[in-house]
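User: hey, got a sec? need tRNA-specific adenosine deaminase folded
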Amino acid sequence: MNEFMKIAIDEAMVGMANNDGGPFGAVIVRNGEIISRAHNEVIHTNDPTAHAEVTAIRRASNILSRFDLSDCVIYSSCEPCPMCFAAIHWAKIKKLYYGSTRHDAAAIDFDDQYIYDVINGTATQLQVEVIQIDREESLEPFKKWKGKMDRVQY
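Assistant: Yep! Here you go:
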């Protein structure tokens, strides 16, 4: 068994034992060294975004003092949900290893299919009503950003 995947699975078990959240763990590695490890902490923190992968990314970014984790890889005990998959991309991580699938997670009531359907435009019913308002006014920060000479692009 892959040593880093074993640690991700162990993290999932720790989180479950502590009742921190669902059975998910993640590890971020750079050059064969663990930078961060995390498990799902949704229940512990009352933060619906405290999934294992997001928490591991936050910790790794803090430890490395940067938002670009392109020299890191992530090991996740399960195929990441759409939010975590997006976070992995935002962090510029180039390689993801995962264990169980999203279908395995759905079998224990962690089903993200609805979110995939919304993203694909195939959802028959929407949970969130989305209404665009005040576009012109909300463009003002964008205009200022474009002219900001000291901006850091990411």
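Quick note: Helices lie at 3-17, 42-45, 52-64, 82-90, 102-106, 113-120, 135-138, 140-147. Let me know if you need anything else on tRNA-specific adenosine deaminase.
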